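Protein modeling request. Please complete all fields; requests missing the sequence field cannot be processed.
Requester role: graduate student
Desired output: 3D structure, C-alpha cell encoding
Chains: 1
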Amino acid sequence: MLETEALLVSSTLQARLDVIRSGGTIPAPAIDAFAKWVHDAEEEDLFRMSPLRWGRASGVSDKDAIELFLRATHAGILEFAWGVICPTCAGFLATPAGLRAMDGRFCSLCEIPIEVQVSESVEVAFTVSPGVRRIRFHTPDKLDIAIDGVSSLFSGNVGRGLEMREKVGRNVLSGGHMEGHSMHTERTTLSPNRYMVVVPASNTTCRFRAVENGERDDLEIDLFDGRAVASVPEVRSGRLDLTLRNKSGMSIEYLLAIDPKPTQEEMIATKDQFVKHLQKVAESDAWLSGRRLLTSQAFHELFRAETIPAEQGIDVKGLSILFTDLQGSTRLYQQAGDLRAFEMVREHFGVLKDCVSSSGGAVVKTIGDAVMAVFSEPRAAVEAAVQMHRRIARVAPGDLALKIGLHEGPCIAVHMNERLDYFGTTVNVAARVQGKAAGGEIVLTETSFKATDVEKLLRSAEFVGAKENVELRGIEGTVPIVRLKPAVPA
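Delivered output (490 residues):
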C-alpha cells in the first residue's frame, strides 16, 4: 500500500477496533494480532477468509476467533457471506440473500444439484470491508481474471478445492470484464475439445464443443443472471468469433476455458461420502460451517435476525440442546429475602451464560429460572454443563443446585420474537430429559453420551454415571439416558 493509504487504513481500522476493545470479551493480544493482519496481509488473504484458519495460525482459540470476526463484522471491519459448497469441486456458490436463498442450489461447473444442509454444506466466509481497506476483490474490473476470477469460483478454506482450482486455472484461455447490458466480441483459435464460458460470481457456466467438421465458425452466448444460453452447441475448430451479451444489469467477469469437468469416477456421488469428506476437511482445513456460526453466542447477540425466514425456518442437523433448571430458588426467596434472592438468581444467569459462551455455545432464551442453550457438538454442551455445576455452588453455597439435561440431533432454526430460536423433537427430548434430573445432576441421552470425547471429558471431570431407560412425556417408547453426578460433591 502507498504510505498515505496505509495511514488512512490504520486510522479507520483503529477507530473500529476500539469498539471491539470496549466490549471487553476478546483478549487484547488477539485483537492486536488481528489488527496487524488486516493492515499487512496480502489482498488475496483478506478475501473469503475463515476465522478458524486465521485463529489457528495466530494462536487464537476457535471460540475467540469466531467471536472476534463477528464483532469485527458488526464494527464494520469485515463483511461475511454465506456460500453453499459443491461436494465435487468445492465451488463457493455465493448466496447474497443469506439463508433465505438456500433452498437448493445447482453447481453449473459440475452440472449437479446440491442438497443444501446448513450443518454439512454451508460455509460462512469473511472479507475485509472496503471502508477499512480496499482490495482488488472489491473492484472486479481490476482483477486479473485468469487468476482472481478462478479463485473466486472456489472456497479458499476447503482444501479439496485447490486441485480443481488449479485444474481450471491451467485451462483458462481468456477472460474479461463486461458492464451490464453490454456486448463483447473476441476472435480466438480453438483446437478440437470441450470448452466453457464461466461467470464466476454467479457460478454460471455455458458449455460448447469445437469439432473438426463443425458448421459454424462463430458463436453467440447470452449471459443472464445465473443462466447462459449458446446459439449452437458445436462450432468448427480453428478460428472462432465469440460474441458475449451480458443481458443482466450487473457488471460481470467471465472466463473462456477448456472444460475440466470431472469424470463420473471423480465425483462424490452420495450424501454420506460428502458428509464424511467435509467432516475430514473441517478437522484439517478449518472452514466455518453454518451450523457452528448459528451456535455462537456473539452471532445470537449481534445478528439475531440474520436472514432466517420466520415463516418456515431452516433445518440444522447435529445440534446439541441443553436445558437447565434451578432447584431451591423458591426456598431461597423465603430464607434470604426477595432482594438478596433475586440478586443471586440474576448472578446465576450470568454464570450460566459465561459457561455456555466459553464452551462455544449460545444461550437461546431464559424461561423463569431455566436456561435453554445450543451447541454445535455434544462435547461442548457437556463441557458447559460440568462448568455450570462447579461454578453455581459459589453463587449460593448449599442453597441452589442445577438440574441439567441435554440431547443431540436435528432442529429447526427460526427467527421468532426478534431472536433465533429452535424447535423440534430434539428440543422436546432435551427439555424432558432435564425434567428427569435431580439437583446437582447432568442427564444425557445415550446418543449424546456416546458422542466423540464425551466419556473422556466426564472421566476427567470426575463425574460418575448410571444408565437407565425412562419414559418421556410425548415421546414414544423408552429413551436410554445416562444420569451423572460429581464423584465428589462440589
